[in-house]
Structure formats: C-alpha cells, structure tokens
Amino acid sequence: DIVDEFLRKFSSCVTQTMHLITNDDKHTLRSPLSMKLIEAI
Q1: Rounded CA gap, 37 and 1, in Å?
Q2: Number of domains the chain is built from
Q3: 7 phi/psi in degrees, rounded to 5
Q4: Is the pTM of this model over 0.70?
Q5: Does residue 31 contact residue 23 with C-beta atoms inside 8 Å?
Q6: Which domain, by its residues, includes 35?
Q7: DSSP assignment string, 27-41
C-alpha cells in the first residue's frame, strides 16, 4: 500500500531527525521544528 510505505519512510525520517537532535546540540534550530512535527502526529 502506498500510504503504508509513505508512513514507514516518514517515521524513519522522524527517527533519524530525532537521533540527530539528541546527539548534536548544534541542531537547536531544528529542535522546535521537530517538536511541532511530533505534536502533529
């Protein structure tokens, strides 16, 4: 299913983004953006 595949890729992207944020404090600009993303889910 196309939707399932999209959700898999999307969740994978979110996971990678969170991984970057938690391991690199230089990504402070991306942090609020990702928080909004998580709230939207």
Answers
A1: 23
A2: 1
A3: -65, -35
A4: no
A5: no
A6: 2-40
A7: -TTHHHHHHHHHHH-
